[in-house]
Amino acid sequence: MSISTASNLTSKRSPIVVGFLTMLRKETSRIFRIWSQTLLPPVVTTSLYFAIFGTFIGSQIAKIEGFSYIQFIVPGLVMMAVITSSYSNVVSTFFGAKMQRYLEELLVSPLPDWVVIAGFVSGGIVRSLLVAVLVLVVSLFFTHLVIFNVLVIFAAAFLTSVLFSLAGLVNGIYAKSFDGINIVPTFVLTPLTYLGGVFYSVNRLPVFFKELSLFNPILYMVNAFRYGFLGITDVSLYTSFAVMIVLILVLLALALWLFKKGNGLKS
Amino acid sequence: MTDSHVDNGVPALKIEHLRKVYASRTGATGAGHEALKDVSLTIPSGEFFAFLGPNGAGKSTLIGILSGLVVKSSGTAEVCGVSIDANPEKAKSFIGLVPQEFNLNWFETSLEIIVNQAGYYGIARKDIMPRAEQLLKDLGLWDKRHEQSRTLSGGMKRRLMIARALIHEPKVLLLDEPTAGVDVELRREMWEYLRTLNEQGTTIILTTHYLEEAEQLCRQVAIINHGEIIKQGTVKSLLTSLNFVTLLLDVVAPVSTAEMTLVRDYPITKIDDMTLELKLAPGETVNDSFRKLTAIGVQIANIRNTGSRLEEVFINLIEKK
After folding, report:
1. Which of A148, A256, A264, B61 is 20 to 30 A off residue B235, Cα-Cα?
2. What pLDDT was estimated at residue B6?
3. Would you place residue A163 in the very low, low, confident or very high pLDDT band (cuts 50, 70, 90)?
4. Is the pLDDT of residue B181 over 90?
């Protein structure tokens, strides 16, 4: 071992921008490096949904507000893939970093907490939006896409991916074992997604179940996204976006507080 | 990212009344474990300093607080004049940490690990490449730059953690048990590397329970036990505080119990059949004991030092407590 003269280290960009881009690059390269675990499974799963529920069963179901059943479920299934991908990406990368202790690389660095949070969330956003595009491409093999408002489509997908990335991060912070990162997706996320209007319009439910569904936040995301494609929704578009933004702010505040306190992160 | 190593008299580290109480596992209040008890300390810039102490003494907790991995219960700490409370980001930018446990991403390559770490300190990829190459070469890891960290040996992982800690040119290098589990040859090489680094201006603070390590490397030592600093000073001053010197005598033939009875009035104890220990208080000479041993027919083949003299100071202090 020998020592060389130290170089003069400077960068033109702001340290915060460099730090964030480093995390974004790291997260993105991981997604592509293990694409068979990150990108392929949701494409295979939704293809099966398209084939079974859309083509085989859907052909026997009456049109919903003028659209075929498969056209009706495509936005919901894409949103389901967005929710699952964003959540699972962040919860697994964060918990992996915590268990292998390389999260300490970030905790000892001068990066502010919000940049570290943004870095992890960026991975969830990239993966879920990539999955959304792939699933939409696959859906073209089963039906033709109707697009009503691109901006609403993008905004709903983006905000949903941010929201569930933050939820995955909070889960990762609290989790103490691998069981801890599986309980929420299995027992909370999946039931809420299936009951969130992916496969049906809540307007067709009995009043009690319709009103109960209004407490399910995923209903608002699915409907906002579906509005972007088909121009129809079971709930107000403004309410949908308000629900997403409020939940994002709540989860962001919780994540920042947990980082500041060091709960689940520091001794 | 950090400025020059000239610090105009600002200490590298200033700790006042630092205290850490870990909450009890049951969550009961007031029943936690007090790992650090009101520790105060100043380490000048450019120092080579060691925290010495047994396992569980509070050394890693102290390093953890300074580097942002442990939340202190009370007290203050400044790194290069910057408070870890008022400006934690700035204070952290001065520090490079080599932790005790391996904390490398198994699936990242050596080069990726240190380049990403530079990114977290605000140094862009293209700007850090020359230094990354040089550091990996200096630490003998350049050939392994494209290897995932999980494939590296323990010694290589340890060196990679040093490269990662140094990538942003920290003013203060914190090493928590840097040579734990490292073979003798690599340990000597690491000592040499750290010595040169210190000569170039980096303040080095390490924790160790290898007393020889502190004796070989450091100018200043603080002995810490049960969360308290029980002795602090230069290695030289601690050694002069020794109130005895211990020598080991290898004998030519086995020493019998009867022979030991004859030297019971001398500071001689039997370690095994072929080894005796001679403990001399200040002012005592070896002559009296040697004369007696010769008189009863015990022939001495060799005289050895017990090893680390600092160890004797350490044991003396710990036993006193």
Report:
1. B61
2. 46
3. very high
4. no
CA distance A129 to A154: 9
Return d(Cα A182, Cα B46) in angstroms, integer: 49
For residue B69, give the chain A residue with the closest CA.
A266
Instruction: Please list every residue in chain A whose beta carbon sits closer than 8 Å to the beta carbon of residue B140.
Output: 1
For chain B, which residues make up each domain, given as ranges? 13-234, 245-320
Among A137-146, A212-221, B25-34, where is mean pLDDT lowest?
B25-34
Whole-number Å distance between alpha carbons of A79 and A218: 9
* CB contact set of B12 (below 8 Å; sequence gap of 6+): B43, B44, B45, B46, B47, B79, B80, B171, B172, B203, B205
Whether the Cβ atoms of residue A171 and residue A262 lie closer than 8 Å to each other? no
The answer to whether residue A16 neighbours chain B at the CB level (below 8 Å) is yes
Residues of B in contact with A111 (CB under 8 A): 89, 120
Q: Say which residues have a Cβ less than 8 Å from residue B282's Cβ, sequence separation at least 6.
A: B243, B244
CATH topology of domain B13-234: Rossmann fold (3.40.50)
What average pLDDT does range B292-318 have in this prediction? 75
Alpha helix positions (H), A1-112: 15-33, 35-38, 40-49, 69-99, 103-107
Measured in degrees and rounded to the nearest 5, phi and psi for residue A11 equal -135, 145
Which positions ≥6 away from B223 have C-beta within 8 Å?
B52, B53, B229, B230, B231, B232, B238, B313, B314, B317, B318
Predicted pLDDT of residue B40 = 92
Report the alpha-carbon angle A211-A217-A221, nearest 5.
Answer: 110
Nearest CA in chain A to B65: A267
Cβ-defined contact of B92 to A1 (cutoff 8 Å): no
Alpha helix stretches (DSSP H) within B263-305: 287-295
- Which chain A residues contact residue B134 at CB under 8 A? 4, 7
Mutation to test the B interface, candidates A93, A102, A120, most B Cβ within 10 Å: A102
d(CA B72, CA A18): 29
Q: For B206-225, what is each residue's pLDDT tens digit?
A: 988 777 788 888 888 888 88
State the Cα–Cα distance between residues B94 and B14, nearest whole angstrom: 14
Q: List, for residues B86-135, the tens digit of each pLDDT value.
A: 999 999 999 999 998 899 999 999 999 999 999 999 998 888 999 999 99
Q: Which of A86, A110, A241 is nearest to A165 (CA)?
A: A86
Closest CA to A227 of A201, A248, A252: A201
Model confidence band, residue A5 (pLDDT cutoffs 50, 70, 90)? very low
- Mean pLDDT of all residues in B1-13: 64
Give residue B127's identity as a one-letter amino acid code: D
For B75, phi then psi, to 5°, come to: 100, 175
Among A1, A7, A102, beta carbon nearest to B193: A1
Measured between CA atoms, the residue of chain A closest to residue B136 is A1
Residue A21 CA, distance from chain mean position: 20
CA-CA distance, B89 to B98, in Å (whole number)?
18
